[in-house]
Amino acid sequence: MNGRPVERVDETSGQFLQSLIAGTEAGSTVSTGGKRQAPSVIDAAKQRVDAARRAADNSLDRAKAAPKPHEISNPAFVALFEAHQRDREMLFEAMRALERVQSGSVSHAR
Length: 110
What we know:
Order of helices and strands: HEEHH
């Protein structure tokens, strides 16, 4: 593998996703001629989906790069795949949140 202990993969993956989400939230204001304007709630939700998608893609790549065999008897693969499953669930939650925001804004626009 890459020399990192297997038990740290989940922690690293979670930290990566959190840093991406925090980065999108922290840098979420846009400067417009001296005034700061916050992006729409939908844009922020889309950024969270993008960050979660990148984290899930990265954890899947790490699982695919695990030493073979890719089966339950290989603890390295199992740990990496479980980390990917958690990242994937975070992606799905971000997608559901985006859907809720979009459906809420559609009903208010009427």
